[in-house]
Amino acid sequence: MRRGKMKFLMVLFTVGLISAIPFAALASEAVTIQGEVNDSYQIVDSNGQVYEIADTVQGNDLVENHIGEKAKVVGTVQTEEDLKILTVTKFEILAE
Hints:
About 35% of the residues lie in helices and about 40% in strands. By secondary structure, the protein is α+β, with helices and mostly antiparallel strands. The chain has a domain at about 30-95: CATH 2.40.50.140.
């Protein structure tokens, strides 16, 4: 009975480990982006790359209070179809 229980636990562990691998690939690392905030809930960097700002407390603060200003933004980027979505964790407004 003990040997059967051990095999069951090993199989369960292996299945759990394999199913977690795709989610590890989705984890994003923090990035820093500098660009101009526009009134479309976006930040546009100096190369013209557009990042959609995710609907979060920090993101809303950035786009609602700093339209037309340049900002240095730290956050994570996820790609959905052709969009780059930036989840803001912190930002600072840059002097012009």
